[in-house]
Amino acid sequence: MRLPWRRENSEKAPDIPWFWTLTIDGRPAANFDWPDILQGLEGLRADPDSFLALERQNPACIQESGFLQCAVVLTGERAGWYAVECGYPGPEGPVLLERQVPSIQEVVPVFESVYRQRDAVLSGFADLSDAMGRNESTR
User: Fold this and answer.
1) Residue 53 belongs to a domain
2) For residue 44, is it within any domain?
3) Which residues, other chains included, contact 136 with Cβ-Cβ below 8 Å and sequence gap of 6+?
4) What is the pLDDT of residues 87-116, one digit of tens each?
């Protein structure tokens, strides 16, 4: 899937004024890199305050912004699994995708592909866009 923040050459420094923000367990992280994201993902626990959110923002164009977040599922049949959500502005309104997986090893490639601005690995994600205010008349 091609997300709005993907770049053709993910190894080259961005030439637009975008920035990442990383929040781990409600605390913003400063001066972070991929190892910090990986450590945050591996530290997720079954607690309502335990989550990791990675946001990409382009101050010049909100349509090129988005987020990826992960937390441990707390209740139900999939308690203990990891819920990964991806949100971004779509042409017909906000898009929210979610996937629940049993291991952190399935979460890491998704975050790495988004962080490195490559095509994201979003197969198996459910479209929950209705939860973000889209309805049948806007699709």
Assistant:
1) yes
2) yes
3) none
4) 988 888 888 999 999 999 999 999 998 888
